[in-house]
Amino acid sequence: MRKWRELFAISQTALSTKMALSPSVISDYESGRRKNPGTRFLRRFVWALLKIDEERGSRFIREFAKLTSSPSMAVIDIKEYPLPIPIQYFCKVINGKVVACADVSVKSIRGYTVVDSASAIETLSGYEYLLLFGATTDRALIFTNISNEISPIILVRISSLKPAVAVFHGTIPDDYSVHLAELDHIPLIYTGIPTIEQLIKTLRKLYRIALRKKLGKSVSLPHKVIT
Fold first, then answer.
1. Are 186 and 165 in contact (CB under 8 A)?
2. Largest CB tally within 10 Å, which of 14, 63, 68, 152?
3. Domain holding 157: CATH number?
């Protein structure tokens, strides 16, 4: 309860007033002095949070609505690998070529996110950008549907969170994108895999290989997994 109240930036006094309760009731629930509230109380609690935010202009309601909608339009696929994947091997698997920061000491990734670049630039807020990183920043952000007008590396450049590696699919990085990647010391890879479907199939096959390896099954790691 405290977490959600603070997320909405609502004081105990304001919340208790809206719920027609003593402030001590909210304090007791949040501190654990009272037993867990029942469903009827929780309905009143949620209603009060939403009502107060609505009266203040629905700032947080709009933000949370974006978090549940916009990323799904920008994120094409996202997975966490069960084992670290060496970047050199990852690059070979996706038929990639390192075009920036080949000498950076980052050695492996633990996940990937395939991002529709145009949709991400047009729709993602700062909060939503964080969702691209899944469970860890030790991942590859793979940009596809890249516009010639705006480099998706700008998204990475202006954020405090950086991926282990960035990948351009289907569009050779221009000099400006390479420059931005080098400023943040992020390896930038280009892959010319013909379609998004083939790219995702490749990434998921690599995931299955890593999963089988983690489970102790005998697996030979091929140089390429594209089919």
1. yes
2. 152
3. 3.40.1390.20
Rounded Cα–Cα distance for residues 163 and 136 (Å): 9
**Could you tell me if residue 35 is inside a domain?**
yes
3-class DSSP state for residue 148?
A: coil
Across residues 3-31, what is the average pLDDT?
90
What is the extent of the structural domain holding 138?
72-214
The reply to whether 220 falls in a domain is no
Which residue type occupies 53? D
Q: What is the mean pLDDT of residues 155-166?
A: 91
- Whether 127 and 100 share a structural domain: yes
Q: How far apart, in whole angstroms, are the C-alpha atoms of residue 11 and residue 88?
A: 51
Q: CA-CA distance, 220 to 69, in Å (whole number)? A: 40
Neighbours of 75 (CB within 10 A): 19
pLDDT at 133 over 80: yes
The total number of structural domains in the chain stands at 2
Tell me the β-bridge partners of 79. Answer: 112
- Amino acid identity at 132: L
Q: Residue 111 above 90 pLDDT?
A: yes
Alpha helices in the chain (DSSP H): 2-7, 12-18, 23-31, 39-55, 59-67, 70-74, 87-93, 117-123, 126-130, 153-157, 175-183, 196-214
Whether 30 and 86 map to the same domain: the answer is no
8 A C-beta contact, residue 87 and residue 98 = no
The rounded distance, in Å, linking the Cα atoms of 87 and 85 is: 6
pTM of the model: 0.65
